[in-house]
Amino acid sequence: MRVPWSECRVVARPAPLRMNACSGGLLSLALVAALASCAPRSVDGSRVCAGVTQWANERGGMVWIPGGDVEMGGGAGHPEETPAYTANVEGFWLDRHEVTNAQFAAFVGATGYVTEAERQPAEKGGPGSAVFGASAWSYVSGADWRHPLGPGSSNEPTHPVVHVTYADASAYADWAGRVLPTEEQYEHAARLGGDVAVSAGEGGAARYGANTWQGVFPFRNTSEDGFLRTAPAGCFEADALGLHDILGNVWEWTSTPYYPTHQPSAAMRAQFPNGVNEADPALGVRAIKGGSFLCAPNFCARYTPSARQPQEADLGTSHIGFRTALIAPGP
Ligand SMILES: [Ca+2]
To answer: Which SS3 state, helix, strand or coil, does residue 48 take?
Structure first.
């Protein structure tokens, strides 16, 4: 069964198998296993790969984001980023990097929380999640945050947690005494930090400030930036605010309901208060931000501050994670 897919992200739950719009090929588990070996390595010398920061107190590992006006949207002709508008964002704290598997494991260990991927009902495919394999998406039974590529795979403690749904990310944030950032907060922070995804380096060579896809998506990833899939949190150079991976690596959940324009009608908001999800209006769709390791220049190119995509609230994937925010006085 083919399902509607849009660029960069999974938007709907196919049954019984997830397919990718651009290839439709079935996922080879053997090939997935081969892709699991993605050792960190330095390519352009710009990355420190110093590991993740600690968060021993409520503001540990967080960066203060000064308040101010932010110009929302307006990116590169993408209709979902229009019309541009100005928002005012109060200062807030934001995680320096994406929540890692080690951090999520601490949450699970303390609370016994079971993620939605681990308890998906049969009518939604059963326990599992969406995995991007060789060149296509598929729903892999048994894929979850501990097994990002499916049964037999294991996660890396320093990598961002993936296969978490909106409820999972919200539960973690609540446990940590935080919240998920809004779309406006996220875009404000990303713009203040500078557009660091790809820039010109010495001799005109590309300099990668974020984990994206090099080569022709979805068939050939040259991994010129050093990473075929996720990279350890904090591995790429921090932006001007001290944030890592605010662009690239994994898309990140926000708390903002998604509409296909920045200016939805009152009727649309009333009909879909949790974002436009015609299949399940009550469940809704949230905006995800930042782009991921799957964003390539030829296809998605959403590794920009204004980039936004919808994501079904109860579906995690292998390229969506999150970070938390804290609404508290500044330093
Ligand atoms: Ca990459």
So the answer is: coil
CB under 5 Å of ion ligand 1: residues: 211, 225, 227, 293
Q: Give the ranges where 194-320 is alpha helix by DSSP (H).
A: 266-271
Residues across the chain: 331
Taking a C-beta distance cutoff of 8 angstroms, is the pair 296, 212 a contact? yes
Which structure tokens are listed for 1?
A: 């069964």
Which residue carries 């409520």 as its tokens?
58
Residue-wise pLDDT for 11-36, tens only, equals 444 433 322 221 222 222 222 222 22
Q: How far is CA 265 from the centre of its chain?
A: 27
As beta bridge partners, residue 311 has 286
| Ligand 1 center–CA 192 separation, angstroms | 23
Q: Virtual CA dihedral for 310, 227, 147, 19, nearest 10 degrees?
A: 50
The model's pTM: 0.85
Query: What is the spatial distance between Cα 222 and Cα 239, in angstroms, rounded to a whole number?
Result: 24
Distance 54 CA to ligand 1 centre (A): 25
Residues 138 and 154: their CA atoms lie apart, in Å, by: 18
Evaluate whether 20 touches 14 at the Cβ level (below 8 Å).
no
For residue range 240-249, what is the model confidence (pLDDT) as tens digits?
999 999 999 9
Please give the distance, rounded to the nearest whole angstrom, from the Cα atom of residue 231 to the centre of ligand 1: 8
Question: Measured between alpha carbons, how far is 102 from 226 in angstroms, rounded to an integer?
Answer: 22
Strand residue runs (E) in 133-183: 137-141
Q: Which domains does the chain have, with CATH numbers?
A: 29-326 (3.90.1580.10)
CA dist., res. 143 & res. 29, Å (int): 12
Q: Could you say which DSSP state residue 163 is in? A: S
Placement of tokens 């290839």 in the chain: 23
* Cα 213 to middle of ligand 1, angstroms: 5
CA distances from 236 to 66, 148, 209 (A): 22, 21, 6
d(CA 188, CA 91): 10
Parallel/antiparallel/unpaired status of strands 92-95 and 325-326: antiparallel
Residue written as token pair 């079935």: 26
At which residue do the structure tokens 């974020």 appear? 210
